[in-house]
Write a structure and sequence with these properties.
The protein is an alpha/beta fold and 490 residues long. It is 27% helix and 22% strand. The chain is built from twelve helices and 19 strands. It is globular and about 70 Å long. It binds fe (iii) ion (FE) and zinc ion (ZN).
Length: 490
């Protein structure tokens, strides 16, 4: 107890806050990360000495708001008028403006070093792994944790799984006995895992008794619990302008809604309070992206496609900011991370359009949204046996693995940047993807996972692959409650 109390007092001291002893006792049950958020709540309230009564009051508010969030998923019903909102503040926290991959062998080495060191520091919040090279010094009865990237995974004839686990100091074959770990199929090549266990008799094999992923903490107290500016953010993606399947009529209905020309009182009130629209890649259909695409293009010049998109964007009310990242149909490098669209494309658009890379972290009035086009869904969905109808399930794995594209060298080309920008270091309030053209969302430990669908009906290629898009549906996020309303413009 004394130790926990000291930790609480210390954490609050970092925020220049003093604690009444009884108040400190009440706070012992929270993790360091939670304490940080709680302390920041008090800091925002301008208190110096935190009393027991104050803690009870504030924690009451926090628990209530977390419960509400869990209770009422979706529902337009609960969306309130935000008309007293202050001016919108939209910040690009990071974008991919400074990419420097050279594709050299050294590049790959430093890329994997960065992937390892970022992820090992994340998993070290949960465990204290030992270096693999130090294992020879321990006895076979010692129970320890190790952590590293999965460099190989195979199943033996008798059904055990053997993983090569690699850290900075060495490689260790790890045996996961058959039926000992439910999530064994969730382990992907190149991702970070932590393994608990012991060495076998010859000390050549590590026998696993538990496996964990970096993951995110159980319950998060988010910034939105402090003073929030509010406002709505429209999440969309995959406009695919230039395709004969682009749903122009639906798009026009969407724009009319943004102009408050259609919809009931409630949705019009939302439209009035839209601060920005995030477009998560595949802005145009591009050219030569899939076999026989030319037979399905209405505009066969890529520059003309962007010009047409710019014209569609112009119909959106001028006060609404628009943030755009590229996808695999856009005219930037295919390898991820992708830089923002180049200057010679940006010039077609008006000033309120903000061009960012893929991925990017955007802060809208204090709500942090991680935008990633979502190409790795093509790896995660089939490998993990998930469904294209529920992309949010796969997005959930991105958070668990703390990586947007955990599998290296699969369908997603990944550039060997000196730094791995695809690691999810900061936990966002919202993870926003597109790419699979199916609208879906879910809540994972307080983070909203949203796949924002498309504006293109089924292509021949999708028909062949049996992919059924759900176009013209638009998730609208209330940034003060993180609730989502789904609007249908079909
Ligand atoms: Fe797309
Ligand atoms: Zn795509």
């Amino acid at each position: 107890m004394m130790e926990e109390l000291a930790k609480v007092v210390e954490k609050f001291a970092q925020f220049e806050l003093m604690l009444e002893p009884d108040a400190a006792k009440l706070l012992c049950k929270y993790t360091q990360e939670e304490l940080e958020l709680i302390a920041s709540l008090f800091q925002n309230k301008n208190v110096l000495i935190v009393t027991k009564t104050l803690v009870e009051k504030v924690m009451g508010e926090v628990e209530k708001s977390v419960d509400e969030e869990h209770g009422g998923e979706e529902d337009e019903e609960e969306i309130e008028d935000q008309s007293i909102r202050k001016k919108d503040v939209i910040n690009v926290v990071y974008s991919m403006n400074n990419l420097k991959s050279t594709g050299s062998y050294e590049g790959f080495l430093s890329y994997f070093k960065s992937r390892y060191s970022k992820l090992v520091s994340l998993i070290s919040d949960r465990i204290s792994p030992r270096p693999i090279s130090s294992l020879r010094k321990i006895g076979t009865s010692d129970d320890v944790w190790i952590a590293g990237l999965v460099s190989d995974k195979r199943t033996t004839r008798s059904g055990h799984v053997i993983i090569e686990l690699e850290d900075e100091s060495g490689v260790m074959p790890v045996l996961i006995p058959k039926n000992s770990f439910d999530d064994v199929n969730e382990i992907l090549p190149d991702e970070m895992i932590g393994v608990r266990g012991h060495l076998n008799g010859e000390k050549r094999l590590f026998i696993a008794t538990d496996v964990i992923f970096p993951d995110i903490p159980e319950k998060r107290y988010q910034k939105r619990l402090t003073e929030q500016n509010g406002g709505y953010v429209v999440l969309t993606s995959d406009t695919h302008v230039g395709s004969i399947h682009f749903l122009e009529d639906a798009w026009n209905r969407f724009v009319r809604w943004l102009n408050c020309d259609v919809g009931d009182a409630k949705t019009k009130r939302m439209a009035r309070n839209v601060s920005c629209i995030l477009v998560c890649g595949d802005l145009v259909d591009g050219i030569g992206i899939y076999p026989k695409q030319e037979t399905e293009l209405s505009i066969d010049n890529i520059f003309e496609q962007y010009k047409a998109l710019a014209e569609y964007i112009e119909d959106i009310p001028a006060h609404i900011k628009i943030v755009m990242c590229p996808g695999n149909h856009d005219i930037v490098r295919q390898a991820e991370p992708q830089p923002p669209l180049s200057e010679n494309i940006q010039k077609f658009f008006d000033d309120r359009v903000i061009f960012v890379g893929n991925p990017s972290l955007i802060d809208v009035n204090g709500t942090r949204i991680l935008m990633y086009h979502g190409r790795s869904l093509n790896d995660l969905i089939p490998t993990l046996g998930l469904s294209y109808e529920r992309p949010a399930e796969a997005m959930c794995r991105m958070l668990i693995k703390r990586h947007l594209a955990p599998m290296y060298g699969s369908t997603v080309p990944i550039a060997p940047e000196p730094e791995d920008h695809l690691v999810i270091e900061e936990i966002p309030d919202v993870l926003h993807t597109g790419h699979v053209h199916v609208v879906d969302y879910m809540n994972y430990k307080g983070v909203k996972l949203i796949n924002s669908g498309a504006w293109q009906s089924q292509t021949e290629y999708q028909k062949m692959k049996n992919l059924k898009p759900t176009p013209a549906k638009v998730p609208v996020l209330d940034t003060s409650s993180l609730k989502i309303a789904m609007l249908n413009f079909k």
